[in-house]
């Protein structure tokens, strides 16, 4: 038990240092806030073992271990628009600004309800008030599940679009989308998403069953499906730090309103053949031939810009 709070505490300065080094203080601060809440929550659980009837320790434990993962989820939601920007706005399934606003609103609502529910259910004695606090907490966790579902759906649609639509990748970001580090970061990101989703489902079931239920009292289940899962998720985020994978292009991938003008391609010179590639690769030829248009999912196909118009996208 003490090791959990110790491990989360060790990760806090690492997250902040990475934020400074890779010029992403906002993202790193949100991650560090989640790690801090996790560390405080496990300290509360440790104190609760020797003082089981202390409502303050229980409130600290419940609040920290509930709000910490929600903060980390909020940081995770901000990454997909940057990944979309790397491959190009033509591959988006939803305008990034609306996607980010929706998930931010859901995350804030989830945090507020989880905080209120945790405090009310642990500091009040009247059964009806405690029950109301538990319902608030369940609603907060349910909203977090909805946000995760939207996030997973958006990421899935983007993956499908990336493999089916035919568009030119921006050669400006070629050093990113062709790098091994970026691909490893994407794989780590997928694993972290699955782990957070698993943890949130478990925690929702646990709270619905009640604090005195067998699943709530099963310490081993909690430590594995909450503590270990969030620890692995946090390590994955820091080991494959998104701002490190994007490098100097991190500021260039911030969410902006897309230009209403469609992409204008320059005319080919007579006799010049379009360059095709089987995957999003980069070379000097691609820089010299702006007419080359290809898809990460299909090789040898050149698409006219009239095939897909920006205005028909969501």
UniProtKB/TrEMBL annotation:
Signal peptide: 1-17
Keyword Cell inner membrane annotated: no
PANTHER family: PROTEIN RTA1-RELATED, SPHINGOID LONG-CHAIN BASE TRANSPORTER RSB1
Protein name: RTA1 domain protein
Segments crossing the lipid bilayer: 27-48, 55-77, 97-116, 136-160, 180-202, 223-245
Source species of the chain: Xylaria grammica
InterPro entries: RTA1
Protein's UniProt keywords contain Signal: yes
Organism ancestry: Eukaryota, Fungi, Dikarya, Ascomycota, Pezizomycotina
Pfam (any one): RTA1
Bilayer topology annotation: Multi-pass membrane protein
GO cellular component terms, A-Z: fungal-type vacuole; plasma membrane
Domain of life: Eukaryota
Cellular compartments annotated: Membrane
UniProt KW keywords: Membrane, Signal, Transmembrane, Transmembrane helix
